[in-house]
From TrEMBL, chains A, B:
GO BP of this protein: L-methylmalonyl-CoA metabolic process
Recorded family membership: Belongs to the methylmalonyl-CoA epimerase family.
Name of the protein described by the UniProt record: methylmalonyl-CoA epimerase
Listed Pfam families: Glyoxalase_4
GO molecular function, one term: lyase activity
Gene3D superfamilies: 2,3-Dihydroxybiphenyl 1,2-Dioxygenase, domain 1 (3.10.180.10)
Domain of life: Bacteria
Catalysis: reaction(s): (R)-methylmalonyl-CoA = (S)-methylmalonyl-CoA
EC number, UniProt record: 5.1.99.1
Keywords: Cobalt, Isomerase, Lyase, Metal-binding
Source species of the chain: Nitratireductor indicus C115
Listed InterPro entries: Glyas_Bleomycin-R_OHBP_Dase, MeMalonyl-CoA_epimerase, MMCE/EMCE_epimerase, VOC_core
Main enzyme class: isomerase
Domain VOC, first and last residues per copy: 4-134
């Protein structure tokens, strides 16, 4: 059921300096910043050979990462995103096992324009898990 | 300079239940547990199509993840590991930019039998970064 690691998301307080570090010091290929107001973040993609890292900076008043950054002012790893072929099948299997799906349990269109769900960190070793249908 | 994402490491308080969740509920391919007493962890590899997730459980009295789990009893994302071709060149470039290398700054043989270094989370948006020479 579990496919590729789509991305690791890192919440950062200062997108410009975090991007510069990955680009200039680590020599990584990075995208231009993309504002995603519907998702409350501005994102930079660090394009690695096999997957990507997404640097997320809060955008707007109700950013979903504002609370995380209040607790972790330096930033930190925010979530991992795994690809699945059928997100409804994955959700039903997870719910049957007792895992909690965040929100109303219905897939939403995520930052990449594809259906996503988030799973409760308490059920996944303290790790916020996003599933994305590809 | 920055190559593949070698792995994401997740510290877990209970390796057996974390493994079962990934294997049985998410349908992932998982390895048998491997005790690495020199590194103070027992590890299970979750083999994804493009990279791997490593579940780490403390092993022994001086486990390097014991403090992390004391602060995060449910577990959590512990570090990311990026591949580099020349770890000494990478280290020198990082140090020249002001980034801090943990320990004595010399590469050590890591859990995969290859030279590794860890970089200070304060310099990488609150994220512990491992570099592995491949």
């Amino acid at each position: 059921m579990l496919g590729r690691l789509n991305h690791v998301a890192i919440a950062v307080p200062d997108l410009a300096s975090a991007t510069a570090l990955y680009r200039d010091t680590l020599g990584a290929k990075v995208s231009a910043p993309q504002a995603l107001p519907d998702h409350g973040v501005t994102v930079v993609f660090i394009e690695l050979d096999n997957t990507k890292v997404e640097l997320l900076e809060p955008l707007g008043e109700a950013s979903p990462i504002a609370g995380f950054l209040a607790k972790n002012p330096d930033g930190g790893m925010h979530h991992v995103c795994y690809e699945v072929e059928d997100i409804v099948e994955a959700r039903d299997r997870l719910k049957a096992s007792g895992a909690r799906v965040l929100g109303d349990g219905e897939p939403k269109i995520g930052a990449h324009g594809k259906p996503v769900l988030f799973l409760h960190p308490k059920d996944f070793s303290g790790t916020l898990v996003e599933l994305e249908q590809v």
